[in-house]
Amino acid sequence: MINAIHGHVMEIKPDYITILTPGGVEYRLEVSRNTSDKIAALPPSDRSSLRVLASLQHREDAMTLFGFQSEEERFCFEQLQTVPGIGARQAIKILSGITVVNLIKALDSQDVKTLAKVSGIGPKTAQKLVLQLRNVLVLDEDGEEASDSALPAQEYRDMVDSFVAMGHDRRLVVRTLSAVIKESEEKIKGKDYRQVEPLIFSIMLKRLS
Fold first, then answer.
1. Which of 125, 135, 121 is nearest to 171 (CA)?
2. DSSP character string of 21-57
3. CA torsion angle 81 57 54 64 (round to 10)
4. CA 56 from chain center: how many Å?
5. Given the DSSP bridges, would you call strands 50-58 and 63-68 parallel, antiparallel or unpaired?
């Protein structure tokens, strides 16, 4: 599995970028307009050595590499494809028309009207998105802080799913996890996830019980 491409950005277009790796291989990654704009806004020095997260989509007739500047956008891209009728290209089109945070806010408030205005969605698909993803894509602070760190880090998502499976509300779990990580910052500093997980899980159990 290709997790990311690291190299020199050779070309930036609204819907794709090309990256030349140190090994001399040039990759084309299809991206959302939001990611394309963010990369284009970077200074040349940053574009000369850039790591772009990736998702390889393999179909019978083609292999397509999609790129993302944040883990949050890639997670949304993957979750959008769990909705019936939405494929990879439509998912990237949706993420071109709305930011991750605004997408989550619209889902949280069941704002079908706003979602339906996004290119690639429409009224029926907007309703499907709300029904299927409202409790999957959530903000950690009720939308008060609109930032690309709105979703829990990748390594904590299994923990979130575990507490949801226990019957806890996903929004409450994400908010609690965010607070616990912040409060435990000094204790977990410099440690990897395997060392941190038991501590965080134990605190979460007490907070949510």
1. 135
2. -TTS-EEEEE--HHHHHHHHTS-HHHHTSEEEEEEEE
3. -120
4. 15
5. antiparallel
What stretch of H or E contains 58? strand 50-58
pLDDT in tens, 90-147: 999 999 988 888 888 888 888 898 888 888 788 888 888 888 887 677 655 444 433 3
The CA distance from 109 to 133, in Å, is 12
What stretch of H or E contains 65?
A: strand 63-68
The candidate with the shortest Cα–Cα distance to 35, out of 72, 88, 89, is 72
- In angstroms, rounded to a whole number, what is the distance separating the alpha carbons of residues 104 and 111? 10
Token readout for 51 is 């790591």
pTM of the predicted model over 0.85: no
Residue found by looking up tokens 């806010």 in the block = 105
What are the φ/ψ torsions at residue 68 (nearest 5 degrees)? -145, 140
As given in the structure block, the two tokens for residue 131 are: 């029904």
pLDDT at 201 over 70: yes
Tens-place pLDDT, residues 152-187 = 556 777 788 788 788 887 777 877 887 888 888 788
